[in-house]
Write a structure and sequence with these properties.
The protein is mainly alpha-helical and 473 residues long. The strands form two sheets. The protein has a two-stranded antiparallel sheet. It starts with a helix and ends in a 6-residue tail after the last helix.
Length: 473
């Protein structure tokens, strides 16, 4: 019996490798590959239309081979932490802020009030959150901002009888749908269309169609899973996690109504969120500004909640402490990119992948470009950065193979967006998992069917766009 138990335990550990082990394995593989790939670079110049540095098409050239030593790889770890510092501190501050708000009881009591309102129609919470978050992603590029809503979504999902996966994905996948279909996202499609010299937001009708398909499908998949979990908790992919926090679950009937202080905290939260939306869209706010606003939100919530200065410090530190494990993952993920950059092989990969497209038959060339953009997304997860890197290369390729530039933009959208739901180099994903304590491997098992369908939908939409010469050109 002991032998059998040991065998089962070993098998179980093999099936669920630690997230850090996964990232370290990827770093080692990338390092070994960098030893054999030629070093090369593209020239870059300022694009006046977008005021960003962009790749110069047809400027790729090989340089003297850079071979990193094992010491160089280890040095990439602190460099990765340094590069990811702004993001890491954003996550720590966001977690401390949420803990401050949560300590006032406003979140739990507010969520309980919402849960009481939704009683009997709890399942509708999922499509509502998916739709609202997708609109945020499609218009203002909501991404990092989801990190403040994800813990709230988890609390709400659990109070409705679901699990943390439902709470996280109805927000994170919703926002990702918006960022992928991006019918009015100035930070992805807007930049890409500027580079392609297309009218801004042209083709919006088709993109709205893409958005509707993804929202309906994803909502249906999450609702189906949520119903299973509500009926039988053992069906949850994160059953062990749910059992470990069972004592923290909300008992709706035992929670009081919102107090005056709690109403004040929630009003402050809503006001700050509206301010962030305006700041991102109108003033170009990014992580530094969001960190500052979250700090003010934490202090304001503590004051309204009636906390002493010492209590405010204790709660903020408690929230920050809980997120350090996950925050460091961002630095590890950045290490992968730094190894590729230091070996000067990222541009070589992009150059060879783009050349492969031109050798494909015209009928499957769009799918080849789709695959290329997806691979590049592993190394460049930022939508705007990927647009500035790949569009100057892919637009000429599209012209050569007879693909419309608008179709090339669609290829970029799906290639850039979809796999941010699974790639460990997508820092918003890893941050969300760390905040909710959902194991990466279990998350992958859950979203795999959804993302597989997303990829297939993307391929179908791309082929349709190519077949009808999606334009104006």
């Amino acid at each position: 019996t002991n032998v059998m138990d040991n065998t089962l335990n070993k098998k179980r550990k093999w099936n669920t490798p630690h997230t850090y082990l996964i990232l370290i394995s990827i770093i080692i593989i990338v390092y070994l590959i960098s030893l054999v790939i030629p070093s090369g670079v593209y020239d870059r110049e300022l694009n006046e239309a977008t005021d960003r540095m962009a790749v110069v098409a047809d400027s790729y050239h090989q340089v003297e081979k850079v071979r990193l030593s094992p010491m160089d790889v280890f040095l990439a770890f602190p460099a990765g932490l340094e590069r990811g510092a702004t993001i890491i501190f954003f996550i720590i501050i966001a977690s401390g802020t949420f803990q401050m708000i949560n300590a006032t009881g406003a979140i739990n009591v507010g969520v309980a009030s919402l849960a009481r309102i939704m009683r009997g129609k709890e399942i509708l919470t999922i499509p509502v959150f998916v739709t609202v978050c997708s609109i945020g992603g499609a218009t203002i590029g909501m991404s990092e901002e989801t990190l403040l809503f994800i813990p709230i979504g988890v609390v709400l999902a659990r109070s409705l009888g679901y699990d943390a996966l439902v709470g996280m994905t109805m927000i994170s996948l919703g926002a990702l749908i918006g960022n992928t279909t991006a019918f009015m996202n100035p930070f992805s499609v807007g930049i890409a269309q500027e580079i392609a010299e297309l009218p801004l937001y042209s083709g919006i009708q088709a993109r709205l169609g893409f958005w509707a398909v993804y929202v309906i499908f994803t909502s249906a998949m999450l609702m189906r899973y949520a119903k299973k979990v509500k009926k039988d908790k053992s069906k949850s992919y994160v059953y062990d996690l749910e059992m470990s926090v069972q004592s923290e679950s909300l008992k709706l009937e035992e929670l009081p109504r919102l107090s005056g202080r709690q109403r004040g905290v929630l009003l402050l939260l809503v006001g700050v969120m509206l301010c962030i939306v305006y700041g991102v869209f109108q003033w170009g706010w990014y992580l530094a500004e969001l960190e500052a606003v979250f700090c003010m939100l934490a202090i304001g919530a503590g004051i309204i909640g009636g906390f002493s200065p010492n209590k405010m410090c204790e709660e903020f530190i408690e929230g920050a402490r809980n997120i350090v494990f996950g925050a460091l993952l961002i630095g590890f993920a950045q290490t992968i990119i730094i190894v590729m950059e230091n070996a000067q092989v990222i541009d070589t990969v992009i150059y060879n992948l783009s050349n492969m497209i031109m050798w494909l038959p015209d009928t499957i060339a769009p799918l080849g470009m789709y695959l290329v953009q997806t691979i590049i997304n592993f190394f460049i997860s930022s939508g705007s950065a990927q647009a500035m890197t790949t569009m100057p290369i892919m637009i000429p390729v599209a012209d050569i193979i007879g693909m419309t530039r608008q179709t090339a933009i669609v290829v970029y959208q799906f290639g850039d967006g979809i796999t941010n739901a699974i790639f460990p180099t997508a820092f918003v994903l890893m941050s969300g998992l760390s905040m909710t304590k959902i194991p990466y491997v279990k998350y992958l098992k859950f979203v795999a069917p959804i993302i597989a369908a997303w990829i297939i939908f993307g391929a179908i939409f791309i082929m349709i766009c190519d077949a009808v010469d999606f334009g104006p050109f």
